[in-house]
Amino acid sequence: MRKDISQTAPGFGDTFELHRARSQGVLNSEELAYCREHRIPVGYDCIQIGWVPLGCEDDIVVMHQATAKTSSTTSSADLTRVIEKLKQRCGDKLLPLIEALDNNSLSVDQAQEKAATVVASLQEGLKTNTSLKTLDRCHCVLQNEVAKHFPNLPSFPVTDYNFSYRSWSGEDISKYCQILGNANVWEHLTEEFPSPFTEDLAGELIEIANMGDHHEVFAIEYQVEIIGQLRLLFNSDYPEVYSAEIAYLLGEEYWGRGLMPKILSDFTRQSFQKHPFDFMYVWIEGNHKASIKCAERSGFRRDFFDREEELANLVGRPGFLRYICHRPK
Fold first, then answer.
1. Fewer CB in a 10 Å sphere around the end CB: N or C, the chain?
2. pTM for the whole thing?
3. In order of start, what are the domains of the chain with their CATH numbers?
4. What integer is the mean pLDDT of 276-281?
5. Residue 189, exposed/middle/buried by CB under 10 A (0-12, 13-18, 19+)?
6. By CB neighbour count within 10 A (0-12 exposed, 13-18 middle, 19+ buried), where does 31 fall?
7. Rounded Cα gap, residues 31 and 14, in angstroms
8. What pLDDT was estimated at residue 128?
9. Is the link from the previous residue into 10 a cis peptide, with omega within 30 of 0?
10. What region does 17 belong to: left with phi over 0, alpha with psi -120 to 50, or beta?
11. pLDDT for position 168
12. How far apart are CA 55 and CA 47, in angstroms?
């Protein structure tokens, strides 16, 4: 029988259970440093975006299975019917705007402003006794309906920047450490900097990057040199729309050269060509103006969801804003 072990990490005085439930969250930076110093096995939790003790009780899967068993097929079917009706009502209300656009009696900006009002009014009726995830699901579906009808979507011209994207390999450990072993690079990411950043850790992270079908992780190559990383995290939570989150970073020595907007635009174009995404999105720290500007220059726009702060907390992105790019037509 497994023994429950409590550890008090020197320097911060908090007691934490090595075999605590996985749902209690990821290790903070002090706890992670303590585990590494004392060779306590940890693993990267791709759902919660962070490190957890390998000895923790995996109650997230159990909770998910229990929820799935108690959720009735009828309620799922009812929600699907509600969403289909929303899509129909949205299309009916957008039709006059599309006709006005065709007749040049409305500008694109005016039509979009009215379309946003349509979406807001349809969502308003859902707010009572509706879960946050269901509201976001409806929001994404309605925004996708609007995107199908309006022409202000970005175009992604083929460039001659010669960026390429490939999987990390064990031969890249030195370069991986050079880029991601810099705490400054992690300052605006959703994960905390894993200190100490060793070659062994780099090898573990490369293995994780190349595991599973829930994501794709790429080293960015430019002029025969690795300069950063991109990650696509697939999101199939909502059956009506297929999307992916993009996360990106550049090595500090490549900052300030105007490279990232070009890379993000190029990578987004290629990802739409490779995958049948309805849209892609990025979560950006609210005060990180450079990254916001990068996303906007790459064809992403702010996704105004009125419970965005709650959603960001729910998905492990506290203080972050969602920017979105729909598939170009």
1. N
2. 0.76
3. 6-66 (no CATH), 72-149 (no CATH), 163-326 (3.40.630.30)
4. 94
5. middle
6. buried
7. 9
8. 66
9. no
10. beta
11. 97
12. 17
